User: Which sequence fits this backbone?
């Protein structure tokens, strides 16, 4: 498995397929149908605030880790990587592969003088063991409500 940074606009067809897999797996009871705004992701990438890490095997996209990197709104002198979405195809999980993808992101964050990383996870997908191994602290619980 090879990790690298790629431009979002260069991988739209490939990442769209993985988004479909991710939505099927992680969404849960969401009544909305996924409709990814690729144009906004491309614009963020062109502005320099999006980092797209890809995981490839035999040149095929098998995973991604997408972060928005910006100065924190509450700590203006601190740079934060907000992990927006991450996914690794089921058949490529295990043996620390997901951990390696996050470690790749962590190393880039440190190299780029990012002060912290912030992310959430779905309650029905327990990957706390991986996050704990990476040194993340559980700091909050999110709630969601849908309006008709």
Assistant:
């Amino acid at each position: 498995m090879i990790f690298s940074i790629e431009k979002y606009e260069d991988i739209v067809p490939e990442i769209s397929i993985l988004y479909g897999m991710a939505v099927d797996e992680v969404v849960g009871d969401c009544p909305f149908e996924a409709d990814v705004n690729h144009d906004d992701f491309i614009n963020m990438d062109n502005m320099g605030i999006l980092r797209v890490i890809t995981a490839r095997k035999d040149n095929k996209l098998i995973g991604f880790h997408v972060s928005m990197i910006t100065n924190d709104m509450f700590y203006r002198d601190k740079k934060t990587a907000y992990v927006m979405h991450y996914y690794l195809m089921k058949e490529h999980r295990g043996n620390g592969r997901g951990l390696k993808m996050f470690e790749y992101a962590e190393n880039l964050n440190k190299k780029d003088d990012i002060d912290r990383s912030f992310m959430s996870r779905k309650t029905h997908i327990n990957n706390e063991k991986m996050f704990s191994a990476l040194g993340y602290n559980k700091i909050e619980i999110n709630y969601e409500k849908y309006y008709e």
About this structure: The helical segments are 8-26, 38-47, 97-111, 128-133. The mean pLDDT is 88. The beta strands are 2-5, 50-57, 60-71, 79-88, 116-118.
